[in-house]
Amino acid sequence: MNNRSLAGAFMFVGGVQFVIGMILAEIFYPGYNVSGNYISDLGATCRDTCIIYQPSAFIFNTSVIILGILILLSSYFIWQEFQNYLISILIGLSGLGAAGVGLFPETTGTLHLIVSFIAFFFAALSAIAASKLVKTPFTYFSVVLGIASLAALALFGLQFYLGLGPGGMERMIAYPVLLWIIGFGGYLMSPKQA
User: Fold this and answer.
1) Which end of the chain has fewer CB atoms surrounding its CB within 10 Å, N or C?
2) What is the dihedral angle through the alpha carbons of 28, 57, 89, 155, rounded to the nearest 10 degrees?
């Protein structure tokens, strides 16, 4: 496999395994509610006290760490293929943030908030910046998904949830970039177009 295909494979596998891991963690979390619960509650739920449900926490934390590692590997191969510092750094930072979410669950307080922000913010910027590496129509999809994630991040920060609840609005941040990661990975694995 060449650098491009490796970058795509790491992104695709990372995104797909995380989506499956998140769904499994939701299944094993008693009474989990996608509207009321944050995504990271799957790793540890900390409000007045901290509650950790197993195997939900193990599945979620492991899956998001794997996502982060695979995104970091992908950023290296994207650099090797395209020699683009900006895009490689943005993708790498999003991978570091994702791995940080699993390494520093809600029990770590502010540190968890920081790594979550890094993961979301830099993944959205990566989608927008990477639009320069792809051809239409994927160029447009990349930009739209990145902007949608950034807009949801801003609304989430303002606690304006549009009736979706905090968990629902957080998913409006995460899902566009997860879809982009999987789509971009598939794009990179496809034969290079002339």
Assistant:
1) C
2) 70
Instruction: Look up residue 74 and give its two tokens.
Output: 């992908």
In tens, the pLDDT along 92-122 reads 999 999 999 999 999 999 999 999 999 999 9
**Burial letters for 2-25: b for 16+ Cβ neighbours within 10 Å, e otherwise?**
eebbbbbbbbbbbbbbbbebbebb
C-alpha distances out from residue 54 to 30, 62, 107, 140, Å: 10, 12, 15, 40
Q: What is the pTM of this model?
A: 0.95
DSSP letter for each residue of 79-124? HHHH--HHHHHHHHHHHHHHHHHHHS-GGGTHHHHHHHHHHHHHHH
pLDDT in tens, 153-163: 999 999 999 99
How would you classify residue 187: left for phi > 0, otherwise alpha for psi between -120 and 50, otherwise beta? alpha
1: number of Cβ within 10 Å: 10
The whole-angstrom separation of Cα 14 and Cα 168 is 22
